[in-house]
Write a structure and sequence with these properties.
Helices cover 31% and strands 24% of the residues. The protein has 441 residues and is α/β, with parallel strands linked by helices. The strands form 3 sheets. Strands 4, 14, 15, 16, 17, 18, 19, 20 and 21 form a 9-stranded mixed sheet that branches. An 8-stranded parallel β-barrel has the order 5-6-7-8-9-11-12-13, surrounded by 4 helices. The protein has a 3-stranded antiparallel sheet with strand order 1-2-3. Strand 11, helix 9 and strand 12 form a beta-alpha-beta unit. About 2% of the residues have low confidence. Belongs to the Orn/Lys/Arg decarboxylase class-II family. LysA subfamily.
């Protein structure tokens, strides 16, 4: 998390988040709703996600492809934010779902997303998960390996069904993002090597009656903020499509994956028009059905995590200790990720004041949200918002240190709703049982 670059000022953070503003005594407001009021009503830590922001970003992405006259089927990456309320908002915007587990598939269906609009990716699909996908006749299963292909073909034939599939290609391209979220290099666990595709494609079309092979899929990584890897990856897919067709094989669908990044700190993150331009330039003339799988770009700026200052500790550094921890938002501990932090009260000076480390209460040295961050003076009881927490926040939270899961609130214009109530410690303990032999005298 340390960097030689200066932190963006609070005003810069506000400029980069048009859904946030300070309104006098109301303090920090998100899409018209006072976050202080929400923290007071629902306590902290507390997740807040804006349906309005989610909708606006969904439409902005769709508009970018319309501007290029490029019909694209959008499937939201459920792993980024899996709450059914969020999935429902996106389904109403015309989005399908990209799922990576049987649980996510069930969530998408429960949220009203049609089975034919669901794509199932992921390297570790179990037989039960594949059977679930086959039974519901979902739109597409992205096959990640030869071994999975054989299992899927056998299961579909046994069920007297035919599964619609695409091969996920590993193009051996570095996404130029964090190593832990890069997925398209040869050494990564995902996909089938691009040079193995032609022979496997032919064998599948001739020898595997349980599957209907429609095309190719690719996903290079997450939080990608430069055009180059996208262009290089899609050019490799386009070349592969032409090779397959030259050898008499049909390709009707290309799943372009996701990965479009956002400016958490001061990254020069591209707009969705960049992605639309690259896809149009590289794949637009192939006459295929195109799919994209955005996740972070839609959800992250739509959500914040609210926390309250427990104490300010004066030591070798000044530590601002908050009641949210790495069990709530694990990204900084896992990826060294940077999240903007704003006080909920209107600051007198938006250029920053104290230099502090913002840390959580978890008994781990990695439970740190910010190192040497310039922030307005904070004291016990003050409220803060961790920004861009709408993706990979709630979905990755845990009950580590016996900390119950935090509440989650959705706002939508003048409306608000508690969409996940705070878990109680009694509920957490109720999930456990003690073997009889430990309780018998």
């Amino acid at each position: 998390m340390t960097s030689t670059r200066p932190d963006p000022t609070l005003q810069t953070l506000l400029n980069n988040h048009p859904n946030l503003s300070y309104e006098g005594d109301r303090g920090l407001v998100m899409d018209g709703t006072s976050l202080t009021d929400l923290a007071t009503q629902h306590d902290t830590p507390c997740w807040v996600i804006s349906a309005d922001t989610l909708r606006r970003r969904a439409r902005a992405l769709q508009d970018a492809f319309r501007a290029r006259d490029l019909p694209v089927h959008c499937h939201f990456a459920v792993k980024a934010q899996d709450h059914q309320a969020c999935l429902t908002v996106l389904a109403q915007c015309g989005f399908g779902a990209d799922v990576v587990s049987g649980g996510e598939l069930r969530r998408a269906l429960a949220a009203g997303i049609r089975a034919r609009d669901i794509v199932f990716s992921g390297i570790g699909k179990t037989d039960k998960e594949l059977e679930l996908a086959i039974r519901h006749q979902i739109g597409q299963i992205n096959v990640e390996s030869v071994e999975e292909l054989h299992r899927l073909d056998a299961l579909a034939r046994k069920m007297q069904q035919r599964a619609r599939i695409a091969f996920r290609v590993n193009p051996d391209i570095d996404a130029q993002t964090h190593s832990k979220i890069t997925t398209g290099r040869a050494e990564d666990k995902f996909g089938i090597a691009h040079d193995a595709i032609p022979a496997l494609y032919r064998k599948t079309m001739t020898d595997m009656p349980g599957v209907e092979l429609v095309g190719l899929a690719v996903h290079l990584g997450s939080q990608m903020v430069t055009e180059g890897p996208f262009r290089k990856g899609y050019e490799r897919i386009a070349a592969l499509v032409r090779t397959l067709r030259e050898n008499g094989m049909s390709v009707t669908d290309i799943d372009c994956g996701g990965g479009l990044g956002i400016p958490y700190r001061d990254e020069q993150a591209p707009p969705p028009s960049m992605l639309a331009d690259v896809i149009a330039d590289t794949l637009g003339d192939l006459g295929v059905r195109l799919h994209v799988e955005p996740g972070r770009w839609l959800a992250a700026p739509s959500g914040v995590l609210l926390g309250r200052v427990i104490d300010v500790k004066e030591a070798a550094r000044r530590f601002v200790i908050i009641d949210a921890g790495m069990n709530d938002l694990v990204r900084p501990a896992m990826y060294d990720s940077w999240h903007g932090i704003l006080p909920l009260r209107t600051p007198e000076d938006t250029t920053g004041g104290d230099v502090v480390d913002v840390v959580g209460p978890i008994c781990e040295s990695s439970d740190i949200f910010a190192r040497q961050r310039h922030l307005p003076p904070l004291k016990k009881g003050d409220l803060i918002a961790l920004l861009d927490a709408g993706a990979y926040g709630t979905v990755m939270s845990s009950t580590y240190n016996s900390r119950p899961l935090a509440a989650q609130v959705m706002i939508d214009g003048q409306r608000q709703a508690l969409i996940r109530r705070r878990q109680t410690l009694d509920e957490l303990l109720a999930q456990e049982t003690i073997p009889d032999w430990l309780t018998t005298p």
